[in-house]
TrEMBL record, chain A:
Subunit details: Heterododecamer (2C3:3R2) of six catalytic PyrB chains organized as two trimers (C3), and six regulatory PyrI chains organized as three dimers (R2).
Annotated region described as Disordered, given as residue ranges: 317-336
UniProt GO molecular function: amino acid binding; aspartate carbamoyltransferase activity
Known role: Catalyzes the condensation of carbamoyl phosphate and aspartate to form carbamoyl aspartate and inorganic phosphate, the committed step in the de novo pyrimidine nucleotide biosynthesis pathway.
Signal peptide bounds: none
Binding site for L-aspartate: K82, R174, R229
Gene Ontology biological-process annotations: 'de novo' pyrimidine nucleobase biosynthetic process; 'de novo' UMP biosynthetic process; amino acid metabolic process
PANTHER family reported for this sequence: ASPARTATE CARBAMOYLTRANSFERASE (PTHR45753:SF6), ORNITHINE CARBAMOYLTRANSFERASE, MITOCHONDRIAL (PTHR45753)
Encoding gene, per UniProt annotation: pyrB
Organism: Candidatus Lumbricidiphila eiseniae
Pathway noted in the entry: Pyrimidine metabolism; UMP biosynthesis via de novo pathway; (S)-dihydroorotate from bicarbonate: step 2/3
Family designation: Belongs to the aspartate/ornithine carbamoyltransferase superfamily. ATCase family.
Name of this protein: Aspartate carbamoyltransferase
TrEMBL record, chain B:
GO biological process: 'de novo' UMP biosynthetic process; purine nucleobase catabolic process
Feature: compositional bias, Basic and acidic residues: 451-465
Names of the cofactor(s): Zn(2+)
Binding-site residues for Zn(2+) 1, renumbered to this chain: H67, H69, D161, D314
Top EC class of this enzyme: hydrolase
Keyword terms, alphabetized: Hydrolase, Metal-binding, Pyrimidine biosynthesis, Zinc
Family: Belongs to the metallo-dependent hydrolases superfamily. DHOase family. Class I DHOase subfamily.
Recorded GO MF terms: allantoinase activity; dihydroorotase activity; zinc ion binding
Protein name, UniProt field: Dihydroorotase
Positions of the catalytic residues: D314
Annotated Zn(2+) 2 binding sites: D161, H188, H241
Length: 336, 471
């Protein structure tokens, strides 16, 4: 694997491989010394054309725990706002000797343009592009579900038969897209619930079911309820009449939360609008994985950086057979 | 094809085209002398003529493009009247309609006269300016349509292309007003509110790759409104770059009802589909966007059955930096003059939907008629103006940078295998392209001056239209 641009492209074996390595990375983080020498001498650039402190520090922690040198590059605007162009930025990174570029960009497809442009030789990780994908978020969500569902027996397994509902602004959500492809590739059943205005006009090609009725979907006792953030700007675009009506119809409020099965898990990619799409009682309950998702994010991003930037990437990920690498990591872990 | 003279000096004013295939299928010699077609069939006296061997070549009337962005004045880094008409000559065109979205906008007599005279002195093709409908393309008040019509540029087609005249009252007034001088409003049909931030065709693919959709209904609703307005006020509406199957249905309905509506389709909407956008390569970014395969099929059928009247290139040059970036930041548009005939060949002729006579109709006669040109779009016949092009339909080749002679290279066809190539173009009797090579600027300009002295130019005053007359 040369780049990680979207979960749409990942095979089941590739996805499980990344999740299994993330398990090893998680084990490292429970130790007193949280650092591996794996990417020593490699340079990872966090190239953020859009503010996202959470995602940036997660990638930064991941890269540093693999001993990579990290450069944070906050590009001020893009060529849209007559700031620095993507090409000029890329050529700067190339001159700096970047081995890996983690890019967040407001325009869908910008990471792909960077990856295929020939402007840089670095591996590219998409850290969220426009309304397209956010593959490491999908991976950390899959990792989190897998841990909850399979516990200690998670290694090597998918999400077969797990029933997931994703609720909210599907139309503009890169998190939803990455989850749709990845979770279904891993065997989960995904049902999308949204106001009709916030579903894409045609999802017939998506391996999911869709509906407008949250209460009906919850009555089916899903294993996972994933709530998406409602962005401020949607409130003024006539997507729905008011935040009050949204909460009443599509929010995971107290009564809906209390009616869930006790083993249904509640997810949110953060940051949450408490009281809008999710009630505090749901967000802070033991069924909520919100904080686990943050911690797992570092493990999954360590795994992604490892798979892309360590010398063994080509053979191991193409074959999907991660056994050799696991072994290698575990040995390195033991040597610390 | 070979030309018997290989000298840097201008070829003679007489050309003997030998063995060309006419659009009727018959083979004929064609003699061009002093700017007119002197003889077609068996040429009896070719004394002093430059011989042009046209064995295997199709002779088409000079192509006419109703929709060209020449970019001058204001955007000379993309194209100039000179380079754009050189691209036209390379593509077999002898007349182009220059869109109004220049800087300053072509909304006054001064600008349109300037553009027309730049075209006349360059000499590669007739440049017929299109006037803006509204001042500054702002969509607020009418530009001086009558003054542009009465100017030396003799404007008959008006368009805010790039932007839609979305205000229904303003559109009604524009349609009504141009009746005074037999004008036509060419509408860029795009409801602005339904396409805020739009990046590509709205459908399954836009949802998957996360782009803001440009729904077909944003085009269709404006066309539906405009044909009803045209019916109400009895005016001629022309629909620019129609792109959806639904738009075809509306135009078909309007024509059946007797409404005076004409429509154009671009070469790229006849060949390319939205799947190309999944690459995020901005070469495929265009407005209206590439649509679905079923739209392409409907557009081809509509062109073949006459529902769509003409192919117009929407040649839209942009500098490299406008396409070498992320999708949303990239400019809309593709260059199209040099590739148009090969693309129409691929989409319409190779598929058996049309023959060469139909190609002559949709790329020459009809656009000239819609644009009220009299010296162009004429058949290849004795005493007609010597505007014609020779096309070699044989063989297929990769469309490469060498085929682009305009100033910009934002072609979606680079690297794509297309049939045929244009080998010669004659404008008012003198060559603008020979042996597949565009003739030098000085030679063409000199030939244009000579033609004008002989009274064989296509300046507007010469083609017999009267100002402010109702046809």
């Amino acid at each position: 694997m040369r780049h990680l641009l979207r979960t749409r492209d990942l095979t089941r074996d590739e996805a499980i491989h990344i999740l299994d390595i993330a398990l090893d990375m998680a084990a490292v983080q429970n130790r007193e010394v949280k650092k591996l020498p794996t990417l020593r001498g490699k340079t990872v650039v966090n190239l953020f054309f859009e503010d996202s402190t959470r995602t940036r520090i997660s990638f930064e922690a991941a890269a540093k725990r693999l001993s990579a040198d990290v450069i944070n590059f906050s590009a001020r605007g893009s060529s849209i706002s007559k700031g620095e162009s993507l090409k000029d930025t890329a050529q700067t990174l190339q001159a700096l000797g970047a081995d890996g570029v983690v890019i967040r960009h407001p325009v869908s497809g910008a990471p792909q343009v960077l990856a295929v442009s020939g402007w840089i030789t670095a591996g590219v990780i998409n850290a969220g592009d426009g309304t397209h994908e956010h593959p490491t978020q999908g991976l950390l969500d899959a990792f989190t579900i897998r841990q909850r569902v399979h516990g200690a027996g998670a290694r090597g397994r998918g999400l077969d038969g797990v029933r997931v509902i994703i609720v909210g602004d599907i139309l503009h959500s890169r998190v939803a897209r990455s989850n749709v492809w990845l979770l279904t590739t891993l065997g989960a059943h995904v049902h999308l619930v949204a106001p009709p205005t916030l579903l894409p006009v045609d999802t017939s090609g998506w391996p999911v079911t869709t509906g407008f009725d949250l209460d009906g979907a919850l009555a089916g006792h899903p294993d996972v309820v994933m709530m998406l953030r409602i962005q401020e700007e949607r409130m003024h675009g006539s997507f729905f009449p008011s935040s009050r009506e949204y909460t009443r119809t599509w929010g995971l409020d107290g009564p809906r939360f209390r009616a869930l099965q006790p083993d249904t898990i509640v997810m949110h990619p953060g940051p949450m609008n408490r009281g809008l799409e999710i009630a505090p009682i749901a967000a802070d309950s033991p069924q909520s994985t919100v904080r686990e998702q943050v911690a797992n994010g570092v493990s999954v991003r360590m795994s992604a950086l490892y798979v892309l930037l360590s010398g063994e990437r080509e053979t191991a990920t193409v074959s999907g057979d991660g056994a050799t690498e696991h072994h290698a990591i575990q040995q390195r872990s033991a040597a610390q | 094809m070979t030309v018997s003279e290989h000298t840097p000096t201008p070829p003679s004013a007489t050309f003997h085209i030998v063995g060309a295939q006419l659009v009727t299928g018959e083979h004929a010699d064609i003699l061009l002398r002093d700017g007119v077609i002197a003889q077609v069939g068996t040429v009896t006296d070719a004394a002093g003529a430059t011989r042009v061997d046209a064995d295997g070549l199709v002779a088409l009337p000079g192509l006419v493009d109703l929709h060209t962005h020449l970019r001058e004045p204001g955007y000379e880094q993309s194209e100039t009247v000179l380079t754009g008409t050189q691209a036209a000559a390379a593509g077999g065109f002898t007349a182009v309609f220059a869109m109004a979205n220049t800087l300053p906008v072509a909304d006054t007599a001064g600008v349109v006269e300037q553009v027309a005279s730049l075209g006349a002195s360059a000499g590669y093709a007739m440049v017929q300016p299109i006037g803006a409908v509204t001042v500054g393309l702002a969509g607020e008040r009418l530009a001086e349509l009558g003054t542009m019509a009465a100017s030396r540029a003799r404007v008959r087609v008006f368009s805010d292309d790039g932007l839609c005249v979305s205000d229904p009252l303003l559109m009604r007034r524009a349609l009504e007003y141009v009746k005074a001088f037999d004008g036509v409003i060419a509408q860029h049909a795009q409801d602005p509110r339904l396409t805020v931030g739009a990046q590509m065709n709205e459908g399954a693919l836009s949802g998957e790759i996360g782009m803001v959709g440009w729904p077909g209904v944003a085009e269709e609703s404006i066309i539906a409104r405009d044909v009803l307005l045209a019916e109400h006020v009895g005016s001629h509406l022309h629909v620019c770059h129609l792109s959806t199957a639904g738009s075809v249905e509306i135009v078909r309905w309007a024509k059946a009802r007797g409404i005076r509506v004409t429509a154009e389709v671009t070469p790229h909407h006849l060949l390319l589909t939205e799947e190309l956008v999944a690459s995020y390569d901005p070469r495929y970014k265009v407005n209206p966007p590439l649509r679905r395969a079923e739209d392409v099929a409907a557009l081809r059928d509509a062109l073949a059955d006459g529902t769509i009247d003409t192919v117009a290139t929407d040649h839209a040059p942009h500098p490299i930096e406008a396409k070498e970036c992320e999708w949303d930041a990239a400019a809309n548009g593709m260059v199209g003059l040099e590739s148009a005939l090969s693309v129409v060949h691929e989409a319409m002729v190779a598929t058996g939907l049309m023959g060469w006579a139909d190609v002559a109709r949709v790329l020459s006669a009809t656009p000239a008629r819609i644009g009220r040109l009299t010296g162009h779009g004429r058949p290849i016949a004795t005493d007609e103006p010597a505007n014609l092009t020779l096309y070699d339909p044989r063989g297929r080749s990769s469309f490469d940078l060498a085929r682009l002679v305009g100033q910009s290279s934002n072609s979606p066809y680079l690297g794509r295998v297309l049939p045929g190539r244009v080998v010669a173009t004659f404008h008012n009797g003198y060559p603008t392209q020979l042996d597949g090579v565009v003739r030098p600027a000085e030679e063409v300009a000199a030939a244009a001056r000579l033609a004008e002295q002989r009274g064989r130019s296509d300046t507007p005053e010469d083609n017999g239209r009267h100002r402010f007359t109702r046809s």
